[in-house]
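Researcher: Please translate sequence to structure tokens.
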Amino acid sequence: MERKEKLTANTSVMDMFMIMSEGNPGALNVLMQMMEDPRDFMDILLCDSLDIRGSKLYMLNNDCCGRDINKFRRTLMMLRSGVFTDKQIHQNLELAYAIPFIDDNIKIEGVPPYGKAFGPLDEKWEEFCEKNKESFIERLEEEVKMFEGNKPTI
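Model: Translation complete:
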């Protein structure tokens, strides 16, 4: 099993970029965008702890969030809150095209748009997370079944 280098208190910003991007230019771009807000440093550490690096980090931003930094931040908040299991997260990020964790077709009155403050302390947070989790699991199961059905037989 490949041993990955972890971020530590002694890791320089340049080394952090190299470790987390794994040489993926899209992931490097995501990290640079995340550094625009000092609060996002905690999200970089979250991604490190969840082993979301390189192409997975790029897919999380690109496929799951449509390169919308505010949707990306809300998605990371859901990951931090433990809405999805590690298996669900990685199963999704290992697909050819990852599924959004947040289903934009789900409308819940009282949930503000991306970019507005919203999180675990809000009244609608649990409902938002539960409905998105249900939708995500359903879509993920469909994708996995489709993938399994398309596997070549030897």
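Researcher: Any highlights?
Model: The chain is about 55% helix and 0% strand.
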